[in-house]
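Q: Is it fine to ask for two folds in a single conversation?
A: Yes, each is treated on its own. Send the first.
Q: Here.
A: Result:
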Amino acid sequence: MTTVNLLEFDLEGLAAFCEKLGEKRFRATQLFRWIHQRGASDFAQMTDLAKSLREKLATTARIEALPVITQHESADGTIKWLFDVGGGNAVEAVFIPEDDRGTLCVSSQAGCAVGCRFCSTGHQGFSRNLRTGEITAQLWFAEHFLRRHLKRDERVISNVVMMGMGEPLQNYAALVPALRTMLDDNAYGLSRRRVTVSTSGVVPMIDRLGADCPVALAVSLHAPNDALRDDLVPLNRKYPIAELLDACKRYLAHAPRDFITFEYCMLDGVNDQPEHARQLVELVRNTGISCKFNLIPFNPFPASGLLRSPQPRVLAFARTLSEAGIVTTVRKTRGDDIDAACGQLAGDVKDRTHAAERMAQRRTVVLHPVRVAAPEEH
């Protein structure tokens, strides 16, 4: 008999499953706590469930983690796991420990179809969306592994960022139940402010997320104008910057934070010039959007044909934004010795989109001349 992996369900889904078994809702809540709060995978352990329910579950359900192919631990404490999701595909998740928090970076797809120039995942192409249970399983495994590994009884992971492999908003139907499980007090009880969805700008789904499950939002901007962003983030051709920023402003009405985070990967000679910084300042002022910029040092990989901006240029860029009153941070690179830093997650993808050929054709970024204002006459 085919059994159902209970990691596929948020609490509402689990309640519906239990109802089909003839069980009341409170049984689903008990079961949900056993799975997510205690990390149980054996129904026989769930001693406060009726024996009759445990017997039903034994024949209809399972709690199944993703097989771990490899685990690497960085010198800075970052841990990266490669999970087998079948069909020759594997995805990566990364735990980043900090003094005041523990962050898990979670994948939503095997590969990615967006094809951003600076992202290693995009160069691998796209195979398929992950199921809800495969997204949730990354958190389920990591949380309970880390409790054992660090010999802690309390929660280890305080923040989740959907910044791993894939574009989360292109896997919306599977994403939202996973987010609801992360937020549920009967599961992980994470704050909406501490769960972040990162998107390259799927405008209609930004609006849907605001209505269905508002969490913190990070937008991969990476350019101050459409001409350059078209080259770096191909999705911009469908949803240009003006439309994207309008969607971000609408999202703020529902968001748990009063700002949107804009991610900006610093690429040497491409998007890191003083005029690019001034254009960003102008963009923010013209739209009036409440935002924070997170400047990301590029993590080079050979296929990209791109280089990291020198640190003095990154700091000068940040200073221009900060002096204009825009909150700006420079992301600290973590886990780069195990290829776990931003943009490096690659996993193993049976590409169905011929990404390598497409990326090779786009190897040269078209550098559009930046507009330099004429000096004022006195």
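Q: Second one now.
A: Result:
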Amino acid sequence: MRGGDEQTGELFSYVDLEARVRRDHPLRSIREIVSAALTILEREFAALYSPIGRPSIPREKLLRAMLLQAFYSIRSERLLMERLEYDRLFRWFVGIGVDDPAWDHSTFSKNRDRLLEGDIAAKFLAAVLAQPRVKKLLSTDHFSVDSTLIEAWASMKSVRPKEAPKDGSGEPPAAGGGRNIEADFHGQKRSNDTHASTTDPQARLYKKGKGKEAKLCFLGHGLMENRNGLLVDACLTLADGHGERVAALHMIEPRADRPRAVTLGADKAYDTQDFVNELRAMNVSPHVAQNMSGRRSAIDGRTTRHDGYAVSQRIRKRIEEAFGWIKTIAGQDKTKFRGRDRVGWAFTFAAAAYKLVRLPRLIAETG
């Protein structure tokens, strides 16, 4: 018998979200890890709010929703709330009932910004690492470090002289050309010392390499353990020639406080005498790629003669997989935030999301 094409809504709903998500769905394992990490951060959440007043969006639900935004490449909070309105998988993961309304996107954004005050992204990353089943996956002896460019949410047309020239050449183009007025930058010399963006003053002009164009950027940094290629630390700095090495020393220092030396793999950009000497002073073996192009490398036979040096050079390239996911899937290639603090928060949180994506399979393989 052929059924009728009826579209009448039901008066009552008896949907059990828990029963609608299959038992082997990868989000189940991720949700367990996330819930355990959020329990560790309960005191941190409580310190961010006053004991009186109207209740806000629960921090736990807010962070779960932000993880879904990274997992599924949802580009805005407005679209995330729209997806949360009709997607039962999203509702189950976040922890809201099937009949509960989704939040307003502006309310969600304001509550998200409050997490900046407590540096929750870095603490969430650490809370995931602290769990016993995750801890056994990590190497404590061998690490790799690298950096990537995060393009700022600012146009090159927003770059203006810090001190307006007397001839008026630093003034914006006259109105009449629409929102995206054309501008000719040829012949103008720009540098971070003399110019800054009016949209995001903390963004810096930076070139990826010789012959490349300068862009307004920040530098995102990641520290990876070499056993399974998981990020164990992440941070963001201003884009300058020293940011990579300063961030690397900052991230490896807490892990080098032990009697046995640890190794740190890195590319040619880290091959400087000062950086190598700093690592050796911290009891870290500098497994840095040698830069022999017209100069003398700071890495000599004391390091390269060991078999572990070649292993570190091969494994260190896996950190590019993390950066690729963070920039392509999690949408951090061109940030949607302004200011170093907000951009850094989003980058660190995306690094935590990448690790959560890989953990279910790794945990299943190790039992």
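Q: Anything structural to flag on that second result?
A: Two points. The mean pLDDT is 88. Residues 33 and 128 are 7 Å apart (CA to CA).
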